[in-house]
Amino acid sequence: MSHAFHLLNLENRIHTRIFVPVSKIDTFYSMFDDKKNTSTISFVAQVEDGSSLMFSQHEGMMDILPLRDALFFPGTVNPIIVGRKTSLKVIREAEKNNCIIAIFSQKEPEIEYPGKDDLYPYGVAAKVIHSMKMPDGTHSVLIQALNRIRLVSMDESSIKVRPRGIVESTPEARVGKGKLEYMTTVSMIRQRTNDLAKLTAEIPSEEVRKFVNNVKDSPYFINLICNIIPMDVDIKHDLLKADSEEIRALELLRILNSFIKLARLKREIEQKTHADIDQQQKEYFLNQEIRNLQAELGHNDESSNKFEDVEKMKKKAEEKIWTEQVKATFEKELQRLQRINPQSPDYNVQLNYLQIILQLPWDYCTNDYLNLQTAEKVLNRDHYGMEKVKERILEHLAVLKLRGDQKSPIICLYGPPGVGKTSLGKSIAASLKRKYVRVSLGGLHDESEIRGHRRTYIGAMPGRIIKNIIKAGSSNPVFILDEIDKITQANVNGDPSSALLEVLDPEQNNSFHDNYLDMDYDLSRVMFIATANDIHSIPSPLRDRMELIEVGGYLTEEKIEIAKRHLVPKEKEKNGLAEYKNLKLTKPALEFLIEHYTRESGVRGLEKQINKICRKQALTLAKQESIEKTTLTPTDVETLLGKPLFNRDKYQGNDYAGVVTGLAWTSVGGEILFIETSISKGKGGRLTLTGNLGDVMKESAMLAVEYIKSHAEYLGIDIRVFENYNLHIHVPEGAVPKDGPSAGVTMATSIASALTQRKVRENLAMTGEITLRGKVLPVGGIKEKILAAKRAGITDLMLCKENHKDIEEIPEIYLKGLTFHYVETVMDVWNFALLSEKVKNPIQFTFDEEKKED
To answer: pTM (2 decimals)?
Structure first.
């Protein structure tokens, strides 16, 4: 038979009808509350199959309490913490009116005001037993869960005030007494719960054992076990949704078996982990345990990452252009990586090594741009002068265009600072359309910086050569080895300059061996361009492997052009004056700036002074919002920069005997220097040298004196002069150290002029080394010395005959206004340099009479 139970809801004026097939009905009580608009019926109905439905059912319009990360089962008592304002209103209302509330769990804990769709559909009707306010403003509430209910609808307007909604009771079918299958299931649940409590620390084993053993035939036993076992809310909801105790018990037993299996596996892994790690690795225990657990479950991140690493490298390897030998080595090392445990320190070492192999370009090269006209335009656009370097690059392009393949040249650009050696490398790369990389060798003291470290060392890495090839991304970049003359030579860390021999040898660098890479790499296609200030400090074997090209200093005229074309526009852009096209420096202003505020062969100091002018103009513009004078003259330059810093040495005439103009090379270019010789009466035979002279220069003075003594008759010098007069040779600017043999002819001429009181030819300068036999030898730095002579107003230059070849290589623009006189001996120098005319008020030599013998 079937009976229908009518539950009246006055608020919505509807009836709810529940059809249940029963054989007997025992009603405990029936109650309707007019104030609360809810009905309550408590009964037990005997179902035809022998089971029963237990009812203490609450439904209708109720206040709703949403829970985060928690779900309750009927018949259980649970403490909760309530903090939301809307939830506190529900609790206060329930305590005040002693009414029943509905409790549902949220699907997403982050939602502050959950609606119907944000709540699980099944929950429980509950009664507030007790509440207490906590110091932090929250409330601790004790809740008794009653019967299972389902959420029908919610009042949307109440969600942010005091949530309310309509719920309906969903009775659960109870199992009849004495049913063997169910009793067996309950017994197994008791046992499994005890087992799980012993295996995991999350469940207090002693308390659970007492509880499980003491609760016998309570109709809520299964619900109580569901409540105490820690599990996710969605799993608990699936248990609550079950319509009968028997179904819920079977599902609970399945879950307990799964948890026990997982707990046992975890314990095994813990024991295995403890056996694997030693005393020093205890701090990694927890991570190890998690990794092992994930490995057993098939979700190991390390194993997954390892697999991803291997697959990615295989894909990259398919795209690489390399030889069979490199390919075989890579595959061999990749197989080794696959055998290494990801937790081993060797794993990252091997992984980094394989990544280095993949990052190298190997046989990949960029295509050279072989249009000679365009390449020449790029070189001329970026740099003024430097014809030899440009010509050498164009020659390389021409040969490459004809042959199609050629080893790149190894060039060394040497010259004073600031002449554009390093920046020239960028222009060469741009003209060839190659990649550009640069490494500074200044102060390099470790051979491993070139060859790399062996992989057996901790923190090993490739050398700078291989790392910069990786950076370039191609095997034929333009590679600048900057300041190669400042590399440290043999020391306790090896000899870096010797390591460079293999890099810069065209016969060897096609198989360059890096210690970290441990494979040969072809560097023959790389265009190495080294830069240096002083090639004499480069070891001879290394210097022999490079093609030396001198990059000399600039003429004043050249500096003016460089300033107009490059420096002034660059500094205007840097200082925010690019829009002011009318702001410029006149040619006289630039010349004044170069001559009086810089002292260098290059243009680095000139660039700084132009930057200073632009900064001051920017300051004026920022203050006045306009610049009154846009075309700057020498006077304006002096106003902006202050008094001149330098005054160029000028030719001082030939009015004094013993004063001769010489030429010297310095690191900042050429300079003129004056050799002064004075004669004083004394004991004779004494030679004094002053002016901070080096040993070589002192020896040149001694050679000159001895040669003059041996050729005194040729000059018309009385030999008694050397016995009665002392010689003093001085080179002005005594604070500046001076050395070198090139002042030999100048000193010989100065001493000869002082001893003969003859004038020296006007506007004449000279340079050259002398021997004891009076031979004049060639010297270096001719171009810089010529520039210094032109700046000083010199018109005649006297050089060794063998220096004629150096003059022929210098462009005509440097030689304009100069007359060269080539000599072979010191007598040739005297014949041209010493005039027959005596100086004004010449010294009259007097000698003491010789003592007669008694």
So the answer is: 0.57
